[in-house]
Fold this protein.
Amino acid sequence: MTTIPGRLREPLALVPFLIAVAVAAVVGGLAAADARTVYSGLELPPFAPPAWLFGPVWTVLYLGIAVSGWLYWKSRGDRAGLLWYAAQLVLNAAWTPLFFAAGAYTVALVDIALLDVAIAVTALYFRRTSRVSAALLLPYLAWTLYATALNAAIVVLN
């Protein structure tokens, strides 16, 4: 059996984090097949972004989320932080099917509010051992807080 040299082991450990984030993204992507149609059919608040912006933003955010988890793991972060990391990925993956596929805007609002909390708690755990891993979650938190306000406005307007 071949063993992986120590200098390669840590970079290769990024792969499971990339896969976990990709799974969350794919679940959302599959549920968002009609997202543009649904989004354009909603009464939107003045601060709503154009539909084309979501893809590029999420691509960058998902990469940061994966690297953040890997850096936390690499810094020997504890299991609780990784559990919060997993929880926020599950909540993230659930939002798009709730909002776009099910049209359950209020349930999606509850989900994204819980996601905001989970990201904040994850960042606090990550900060204990890796400030960089925590900092990488801040754009994600900022975007989800913005998305929470957008989701709340959609609930009110629709």
Remarks:
- The chain is about 80% helix and 0% strand.
